[in-house]
Give the backbone structure.
Amino acid sequence: MTNKTGKSPIKMRSTWIISMLACGIFLLIMIKNYAVSVDSIMQNFVYILAGLIAIFIPTSLIGWAVSKIRGRRK
């Protein structure tokens, strides 16, 4: 079975796994070679996550309000 892009799910899954492994290897290299602490990486991750949440929640609320005003429902 293929999806809209014409790629099989197995090929897409393997691409995702390879990209996650590459990110993990990059983080390990960064920690070992540049002496970046894991605490620093986790702190930056929490800041990014908080920023994304701070953007996502107001945007979704605005979208919900606009859809209610226009009367669109699923």
About this structure: The CA atoms of residues 66 and 72 lie 9 Å apart. The radius of gyration is 20 Å. The chain has two helices and no strands.
